[in-house]
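We treat protein structure as text, and this decision shapes the records that our systems exchange. The tokens are whole numbers drawn from a learned vocabulary of local backbone shapes. One such record is reproduced below, unchanged from the form in which we store it:
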Amino acid sequence: MVKKANAGGFEEKLGKLEEIVARLEDETTPIEESLSLFEEGVGISRELSVKLEEVKRKIEVLRKDAEGKLKLEPFEDETNEQ
């Protein structure tokens, strides 16, 4: 049950971040409120990034080696390769 609670927390934070973005995009939002929302959004974004990195480290990918045998390898994010 703990894993489900953590997943819900992630989903809830992501939803909150989406709400913040929508309010920031609203031109009627006062500048003071926008600044506060921006700061809150940055904090949530950092929390979500940390959680995603933790999950990414736990993921293993099943791949075939040169001999055609399946083996487990650590997940490598190909989007961050240079």
